[in-house]
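[job 0412] stage=complex_fold ligand=nicotinic acid status=START
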Amino acid sequence: MTSFDEGAAARAHDRQNSLTKPPGSLGRLEDLAIFLAGWQRRDRPRLDHAQALVFAGNHGIVAQGVNPFPAEVTALMVQNFHQGGAAINQLCAVAGAALTVVPLSLDQPTADFTQGPAMTADEVASAMQAGADAVDPTADVLLLGEMGIGNSTVAAALAAASFGGDGRDWVGPGTGAEGEVLSAKIRAVGAGLARHSPDDTRGTLAAFGGREQAAICGAVLRARELGVPVILDGFICTAAAAVLTRDDPQALDHCLIGHESAEPGHRRLIAALGAQPILSLDMRLGEGSGAAVALMVLRGAVACHNGMATFAEAGFG
Ligand SMILES: Cc1cc2ncn([C@H]3O[C@H](COP(=O)(O)O)[C@@H](O)[C@H]3O)c2cc1C
Ligand SMILES: O=C(O)c1cccnc1
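[job 0412] stage=complex_fold status=DONE, emitting structure tokens
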């Protein structure tokens, strides 16, 4: 497992203080450059090769009436990703990220978690492996996203299982649930929590699903082995990755949270993780869209870190 290089981070910190600006004046851009230096184990971090992975899966929980949109939309959106017509295509193009979409057995939804475990241990293992295998070892940064109708309900269940609380604490509108659909989401999460009490990462993924959540976990673990820093997306992506903290509280140390989603559970989740999102733009889309916008901020941080003159170079004093 690649660790944070304290030496590279210390040298990046010293460099920040030698650049032609008042120390600290670039605020969190400085912290982000130092974070990248430490995890990339390189004094001058780089973002030449940004990889974006969007994992897609389908969910049996849609049988509980938790969605305004039908499950068919998952496959239609995968087609849209391949045709370049989705938000994530535009944002990756402008942010300079190479997008790969990984559909995971879309014709075999996971089981309804109110009736039994969503996935078998083998299904969890193979989805985690698919996530790990999709990571490009040459990437300088990895952006993660998801697509799966019904997965805001899955995310609420995963967050509750990982951090406590019930459906009411974690359920939000997702794609736009209100009234009876929102009540059905809260009931479904409550029923799932009453049925399953997993206490580790794989058990939690098996209980509630889904394949794209397990793939996100596999990709986060693989990125850590490779020393590739990660940008997580919104509520659904963060809830998936956060399941890893059940086995290891430090599992997400190499991850940034790209943005705070408008989905209300995300703020609670970010607080539970003790993290600070890069952006807060009232986005609530998923697909990795908030991670892609946050990459543009990282590019600014790295450009200043690597391109600015030091006081000595600029001939000050
Ligand atoms: C057209 C469309 C495109 C999307 N892109 C991401 N999501 C987002 O919405 C879903 C989660 O919300 P829920 O639990 O309410 O289904 C996920 O697929 C997520 O990525 C979309 C949803 C729709 C309808
Ligand atoms: O924050 C998210 O990940 C999100 C919120 C609503 C719908 N889809 C995704």
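The longest helix spans residues 289-307.
[job 0412] exit 0
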